[in-house]
Amino acid sequence: NEGQAMFSGPHYITENTNGDVCVSDWKKEAVVVVNKSGKHRFSYTGQGLSKFYPKGVCTDHLGHILVCDHHSDTVHLLDPDGQFLCLLLTQQQGIKYPSSLCVDDESNLIVGQRDTNTVTVYKYLQ
């Protein structure tokens, strides 16, 4: 509606349980979320970080949004409205260059890590 491009470097895309579409946009340094009609809801640009390079993005059955930050080697957990909840994984948990992720039906968080060529499974929700 404003005549501006909503995305400039989309990489990963997923649909949330509420019908929102979540897109990690490397060039905008944001996760851009639109509703099912395509109207912009919010953009998440990291939690006080100078740089935020979102890569993989997924959602869980509660509607949380999980996103890999390739710059800080972390996985961010957001609520369905884009509010930061916590860092799920950091370098202290041994994560390096997280690039892709998903949550399976048993609430395991599966994270692919570039450069180390590893896929790691974490127990996510109990």
Walkthrough of the structure:
With 126 residues, the chain is mainly β. Helix content is 0%, strand content 48%. The chain is built from no helices and 11 strands. It has strands spanning 10-15, 21-25, 30-34, 40-44, 54-59, 65-69, 74-78, 84-89, 98-103, 108-113, 118-123. It has a 4-stranded antiparallel beta sheet with strand order 1-2-3-4, with no helix packed on it. Strand 1 (10-15) and strand 2 (21-25) form a beta hairpin. It is globular. The mean pLDDT is 93. NHL repeats lie at residues 53-81. GO terms for molecular function: ubiquitin protein ligase activity; zinc ion binding. This is Tripartite motif-containing protein 2. Keywords: Repeat.
* Biggest beta sheet summary: 4 strands, antiparallel
Instruction: Supply Rg.
Output: 14 Å
Outline the low-pLDDT stretches. Answer: none
Straight-line distance between termini: 42 Å
